[in-house]
Write a structure and sequence with these properties.
By secondary structure, the protein is mainly α. The protein contains 8 helices and no strands. The longest helix has 38 residues.
């Protein structure tokens, strides 16, 4: 198995050849683990779950790696990132559900302490931000998510996207300009809560 290329191993995995999966695991588990550890900001339990999901997906998927679309390691890291995002979304959904229940209880306990006008303003701002993001292209939305919500640096984003740093910087400039123009047009430049 050690003499086989990554592409050959993936082809064998599609045909349920377990030693091929074991070989890929040996080759890439450290890379996947360290990448996942960074994504989870050091949470080893989440990292282990991501690693397990990556190799489970390799075993169960019938899609194969296409070498004309880039290096195998990058393809594997993309799968890892997607799994991490999926797990994060599930976790966030669960947290939101629990938080909604907690929030409802708190509101029943002490409705007088909430500033209704401030809450309405925050909700409007959240809605405006979501609406503004809908006017961005998919790469622009992804850039905003990676930069502001996932906390990646521009150079890390350039590496993840396999795009020159200058292109990422230019995309960010255009994205922020587009968002600024949207807010000026939609709100007259007025920010809620200010």
């Amino acid at each position: 198995m050690k003499s086989k290329t990554d592409e050959e191993l993936i082809h064998l995995i599609v045909h349920n050849h377990r030693p091929a999966l074991e070989e890929l695991y040996d080759r890439y588990v450290k890379l996947i683990y360290s990448f996942s550890l960074k994504i989870t900001k050091g949470d080893t339990e989440k990292t282990k779950e991501i690693v397990q999901q990556v190799f489970l997906r390799l075993w169960t998927t019938k899609r194969t790696y296409n070498p004309s679309q880039g290096r195998f390691a990058n393809w594997l890291l993309t799968i890892t990132r997607n799994i991490a995002i999926d797990l994060s979304r599930k976790e966030q959904k669960h947290k939101r559900t629990v938080q909604l229940e907690v929030d409802e209880w708190r509101q029943m306990q002490d409705q007088q302490t909430e500033d209704v006008l401030q809450q309405v303003s925050k909700n409007l701002l959240k809605q405006e931000i979501q609406e503004a993001k809908r006017h961005l292209s998919a790469p622009q939305q992804r850039l905003i998510d990676l930069l502001y919500w996932e906390c990646y640096s521009l150079s890390e984003i350039a590496e993840i996207e396999q795009t020159p740093l200058g292109t990422i910087k230019s995309r960010l400039h255009q994205t922020l300009k587009k968002l600024r123009n949207y807010f000026v047009q939609e709100t007259g430049g007025v920010r809620h809560g200010k």
